[in-house]
Amino acid sequence: MKTTPLRLATGLALVALSFSLSRVPEAQAVDPAKTKIVFIAGKPSHPSGQHEFNAGAILLARALNDQSGLPLQVDVHHNGWPADEKAFEGAKAVVIYSDGNASHPVNGHEEFMDQLVAKGVGLMCMHYGVEVPPGPLGEYFKKWIGGHYEGGFSCNPHWTAPLEAKSGHPIANGVPAFSANDEWYYNMRFADPKTAQDILTATPTRERINRYVHWTPDGERNLGSKQTLMWAVERSDGGRGIGFTGGHWHRNWAIDDFRRAVLNAIVWVAGMEVPAGGVASEPITEAQLNENLDPKKEMLHVPLPAPTDLTQPAAEAVEFRWPSKK
After folding, report:
1. How far apart are alpha carbons 244 and 45 in whole angstroms?
2. Is 8 a member of any domain?
């Protein structure tokens, strides 16, 4: 998909104003009749239209709070870890949509998160938020959500994934097979023995990849084999964990089945029952996609995904190809 730069004559001031007016309130009184979910959106990252953590979190929270018909209270905390950890009081789940590794919001808060998890609080991490280094934090992630992206082992090409949802699992409710082009990470480092169930899977092939970012011998070796792009674990503490590797392109939130799968996962990780037809939400308009984008050096207008975007790669140059051993 080709995007067209939108040069704002008034500079970034209008963008900042739109961002401040449209964001979801960060703190709300806990409603005992509702299931509280804390959504942590990461700091600005990547060019415009990519890694739009704040804008994406607002779209998902709006769908859950106002459109799902479920008794939910989703509080969005922007630009990283909440300044006041009282924000987590009463939460049934935490969703982290952010950069990972050195920029992961949980850095420095591992013990606090581990205490939440031990109480049965669900945890879901999305896109770069599933990447942490091996070692202590990696072991936490295997415990909390069943696995993680490990640099040098996992890989993150941009490719068109023909996704299949695990039949019979609540997260698959109302989610048919669908395709979407994203930076779908694969070859995760799972707990051994593996504790997670595969929820969304797809098979990468050379023809489906349009951009190689961090390519690895394991990524090459696993071409042609089914890979896990969303996984879920039911922990011994009674809580649940989810990893989801998509979410690079902000435009993909306008794909109904893509969005429904993630909304289902958020509801499930909070310990709730997923409706038989999946979590309801209204179609996302192009205007809504362009609300709350992070102010960046060059602002791009984000168009709705065209039908071809669901079956064809985005127009991007191949950066690096691992030599084939065939």
Report:
1. 18
2. no
Q: What is the pLDDT of residue 26?
A: 56
Q: Which residues neighbour 224 within 8 Å (Cβ) at sequence distance 6 or greater?
A: 203, 204, 205
- Spell out the residues 6+ positions from residue 17 whose beta carbon is closer than 8 angstroms to its own: none
- With a CB cutoff of 8 Å and minimum separation 6, the contacts of 295 are 12, 15, 16, 19, 44
Domain span including residue 173: 13-310
Residue 2 lies in a domain: no
In a domain, 325, yes or no: no
What is the pLDDT averaged over residues 173-200?
Answer: 97
How many domains is the chain built from? 1
Q: Count CB neighbours of 64 within 10 A.
A: 24
Q: What distance lies between CA 204 and its chain's CA centroid?
A: 19
CATH number at residue 186: 3.40.50.880
Radius of gyration (Cα) for the chain, nearest Å?
Answer: 19
Name the band, by pLDDT with cuts 50, 70 and 90, for residue 309. Answer: low
Q: How deeply is 277 buried, as exposed, middle or buried, from its count of CB atoms within 10 A (0-12, 13-18, 19+)?
A: exposed
Query: Residues 286, 40, 310, 15: is their CA dihedral positive or negative?
Result: positive
Q: Three-class SS of residue 216? A: coil
Model-level pTM?
A: 0.89
Q: Is residue 320, in this structure, part of any structural domain at all?
A: no
The values of phi and psi at residue 7, to 5°, are -85, 115
CB-based contacts of 81: which residues, under 8 Å, 6+ apart?
A: 40, 105, 106, 108, 109
Other C-beta atoms lying within 10 Å of the C-beta of residue 95: 30
Q: Which two tokens stand for residue 54?
A: 């704040």
Tens digit of each residue's pLDDT (9 = 90 or more) over 243-287: 999 999 999 999 999 999 999 999 999 999 999 999 999 999 999
In the numeric block, which tokens belong to residue 91? Answer: 């939460």
pLDDT digits (tens, 9 = 90+) for 53-68: 999 999 999 999 999 9
How far lies 230's CA from each of 83, 165, 212, 233, in Å? 29, 9, 20, 11
Tokens of 35: 């299931």
SS3 162: strand
